[in-house]
Amino acid sequence: xxxxxxxxxxxxxESRVLEIRGRAEYVNEAYLVRFLQDxxxxxxxxxxxxxxxxxxxxxxxxxxxxxxxxxKRAFNxxxxxxxxxxxxxxxxxx
Length: 94
Known about the structure:
The chain has two helices and four strands, in the order E-H-E-E-H-E. With 94 residues, the protein is an alpha+beta fold. It has a four-stranded antiparallel beta sheet with strand order 2-3-1-4, covered by helices on one side. The protein is globular, with a radius of gyration of 13 Å. It comes from Anthostomella pinea.
């Protein structure tokens, strides 16, 4: 059963790895987890969460277990947030 209603193929620029950069008050694990659960309504399995603190601006490299069901939904939800920018990172499995 396909509960996520997504197609079987990925575009070349999609990845299960997201690179998130923005203000430190938003780009941290506690805020991002709460935002995705409460505002976007998704739950996920994380392969890796790497936070690089940089004073007022942080960078996160977040590897999800699934590209379509998790990373794509997280990308779409986080892209609407004014306090951060989101890009697809290099997927280690590609």
